[in-house]
Automatic annotation (TrEMBL):
This is DNA phosphorothioation-dependent restriction protein DptF. It comes from Sporosarcina pasteurii (Bacillus pasteurii).
Length: 735
């Protein structure tokens, strides 16, 4: 740590009354390892304040309006820094560090603060501080920038500019020029995959050669182009809205179509608003901006003839709620209502009368489900583009040059593994498995970053070790991202499987590990060389072998997962026979979850130390969610949630539960004989509530079973249909 670089940050700490600054003490220690979560939280507040200060200073130097202070919120800093770069031309390196820091702060409560993350965080933050403060002349000038009004700021700018602006412009030009140079090495080329890389950030008006090469066509692209062609032929004002969520590809699609089809999408005939969470006038909030953007279409203006908007569904919903009863924007609201965008899974809607098209990205999965299982052509295409042996591929060109020159770092070997089609498909299958099991969303940018993380180990300079290779890294880097954390939880090393045990025993007994690697993994010479080591019995080698074996045999070693996919597919296409099989499991689990004293009765609560237990009659009829049969006769599905909604109709009341993979797996285990314990009850809170609802809606007044715990004596208390002699209930001994 360079203490001198960090000390200016102390002026930007925002502490509550009575709160002590741990940052000052940490800086004085000069020890990265002493970084604590409390210090990180205070540094997050400082980062927000420094970002605002940086914007004001750059605005003054460039004589441009300031971005509104309201844009500087923790949940919006990502977009704000993109705007700082766009408006004031800060260097791409500074933008990259700012985005990386913002991503770190977003994950501070979900990912562990490991030594590695501390080191990366401190290094990035220090570099960011150098970029912000290295051109400033004094603390007094910094305070002046904060306090002066715009008119005074211009005068101050003239004083400071003599010493700083020439240096600033030179620095920016050098940095921009440097960042646009083609990478000289394979590792440098791989860094463009990182989330912090400027190449991974998509703007509507910029589409780089790298992004063009990496572009993968999706079905919604054809619909977007068709909508633009319709708008071009029209003689009236048109509206095209791309709706969805963050990271789903709206910005990328607009950028690509602008570059590839300029005759359809250009700034002369179209007004393009790429993100309605960003404001063109920084004194506006997002809804005010959206109102201004939509006004020409609403009023029927012919210049611009076509309005194209990429918008998050949350913003669109807020707009709808604001104007639902104002009488304004009637055309736009009519389109929203008719499209049913907030309630249906429809991906395309065209309103001929109002000349509006709405494309819905929401709910579209990056994978496809069919009777054969699950597959992601989109992810496969991306991974294939990274590893494709072609001169058009910037990764392959540099890799091949260095490989032929004898370069054999772990990253080079990992890329060599990735070029194998079987490994590529295996990698994608495991990624999709993690997404389904853990209900994660993986954006294109996050996939790029993951590829970098599994290709490039932290130490890529020394002799290759098992811990540096792709199958090992895939399950051993939980602190790098949510998806890698999920993969770590699904690590095959944690599994108990008969075939796994057989391979492990075989490996432990072999005296010829290379023969086993050839038989079960690969005969690639660069990979085999690793197994010539006398240390092949070390734990790291065993882990690498088992993880690699799992990747190549994923389908055979994941029967429960594929069973879930089978039921999921037949649920959505409405195949009753297959779903009936699942209800057999569910019936068993409902009966055995807490227990049943006799057929047709369920205990109302777990058997405890109480002397008696009570059971009620259960007469639920099997019931199912509205999504059942939603895609009848459709062979391939890509717009669905990976869960089954099933349950029972109890006394006229539907009681349903949505089962994700975790609950599904528990149900199958219990149905196959596993007795649920306290941990199962704690983890399956949703199923416990479902069970309680079944009991709550069952008849508890006319018929009860009471069981004496010690003697197992069972009595039935029943209300007779026709009471006689003043008898309200009848009691009989069942056992």
């Amino acid at each position: 740590m360079n203490k001198k670089v960090w000390h200016p940050l102390l002026d930007f700490l925002e502490l509550d009354a009575g709160e002590e600054s741990g940052v000052s003490e940490w800086i004085d220690s000069g020890e990265t390892d002493l970084l604590t979560m409390d210090v990180v939280v205070q540094l997050q507040g400082a980062f927000l304040a420094i970002s605002k200060y940086r914007m004001r200073n750059l605005a003054m130097l460039n004589q441009k309006p300031r971005i509104s202070d309201s844009s500087f919120q923790h949940n919006n800093l990502y977009h704000t820094w993109l705007n700082i770069h766009k408006m004031y031309h800060c260097s791409k390196e500074e933008l990259s560090d700012a985005l990386k820091l913002n991503g770190f702060f977003e994950d501070i409560f979900t990912l562990p603060l490991t030594k590695q993350r501390k080191e990366e965080f401190v290094e990035t933050y220090e570099r960011f501080l150098q970029a912000v403060f290295e051109l400033e002349t004094s603390q007094s000038q910094r305070e002046s920038v904060e306090k002066k009004e715009p008119e005074e700021s211009i005068r101050l700018k003239q004083e400071v500019e003599k010493e700083t602006v020439a240096s600033l412009e030179t620095t920016v030009l050098v940095e921009e020029s440097s960042s646009l140079q083609s990478p000289k090495t394979f590792i440098e080329q791989l860094t463009v995959l990182q989330t912090s890389s400027i190449e991974s950030v998509v703007h509507a008006d910029v589409f780089t050669n790298f992004q063009h090469y990496m572009h993968v066509e999706r079905p919604i692209q054809k619909q977007f182009i068709a909508a633009l062609e319709t708008a071009k032929r029209s003689s009236v004002a048109n509206l095209v809205m791309l709706c969805g969520s963050v990271g789903d590809g709206k910005s990328h699609l607009i950028s690509y179509v602008q570059e590839a089809f300029p005759q359809l999408l250009n700034n002369e005939t179209c007004f393009i608003h790429n993100d309605s969470t960003e404001s063109y006038n920084y004194s506006e909030d997002e809804l005010e901006t959206l109102e201004r953007v939509l006004a020409p279409f609403e009023e029927g203006a012919l210049v611009p003839k076509t309005t194209v908007i990429a918008i998050n569904l949350g913003v669109l919903h807020n707009f709808y709620m604001k104007h639902e009863h104002t009488g304004e924007f009637e055309k736009v609201l009519r389109v929203i209502e008719k499209s049913e965008v907030f309630t249906t899974q429809q991906d395309y809607y065209y309103e001929e009368h109002d000349h509006a098209t709405l494309l819905n990205f929401a709910g579209v999965q990056p994978y496809e489900l069919s009777v054969e299982g699950i597959h992601s052509s989109f992810f496969n295409d991306i991974v294939e583009r990274v590893s494709r042996p072609s001169n058009e591929n910037p990764f392959y060109r540099l890799w091949e040059k260095e490989w032929n020159a004898g370069e054999r770092t772990a990253a080079h070997i990992n890329y060599h593994l990735l070029k194998d089609e079987e490994m590529r498909h295996a990698l994608v299958k495991v990624l999709v498995e993690a997404m389904v099991k853990k209900k994660l969303f993986l954006s294109t940018r996050a996939l790029y970053n993951l590829l970098y993380d599994v290709l490039v180990p932290l130490d890529n300079k020394h002799a290759v070790q098992p811990e540096q290779l792709l199958p090992y890294l895939l399950f051993e880097r939980p602190d790098r991202s949510d998806l890698l954390h999920a993969l770590h939880e699904l690590d095959p090393i944690k599994r108990r499987d008969e075939r796994f045990d057989e391979r492990l025993s075989e490996y432990m007994l072999t005296s010829e590990p290379i023969a086993m690697i050839k038989q079960y993994l690969t005969d690639d010479e660069s990979y085999l060389k690793l197994w010539e080591s006398e240390d092949y019995m070390d734990e790291s080698y065993l882990k690498l072998f088992l993880r690699h074996y799992y990747l190549l045999n994923h389908g055979h070693l994941n029967e429960r997962y594929h069973q879930f996919l089978k039921y999921l597919y037949h649920y959505y296409i409405g195949e009753g026979g297959v779903i009936g099989e699942f209800f057999d499991y569910l019936d068993q689990v409902v009966e055995s979850w807490i227990g049943s004293p006799i057929d047709g009765y369920l205990y109302i609560q777990p058997i405890s130390k109480n002397e008696y237990s009570v059971a009620v009659p259960f007469k639920g009829e099997q019931d199912i969610g509205d999504q059942y049969g939603q895609f009848h006769n459709k062979e391939t599905l890509n717009r669905f949630m990976p869960e089954l909604t099933v349950g029972y109709n109890v006394e006229g009341t539907p009681v349903l539960i949505s089962l994700d993979y975790t609950l599904f797996e528990l149900i199958i285990h219990v149905a196959e004989g596993l007795r649920p314990g306290q941990q199962d009850y704690n983890e399956a809170i949703q199923f416990m509530e479902f069970y309680k609802d079944l009991i709550r809606n069952s008849d508890q007044t006319n018929d009860l079973i009471i069981v004496h715990r010690e003697t197992n004596h069972i009595m039935r208390i029943k209300k007779p249909r026709f009471a006689r002699g003043g008898k309200t209930y009848e009691v009989e001994t069942v056992k």
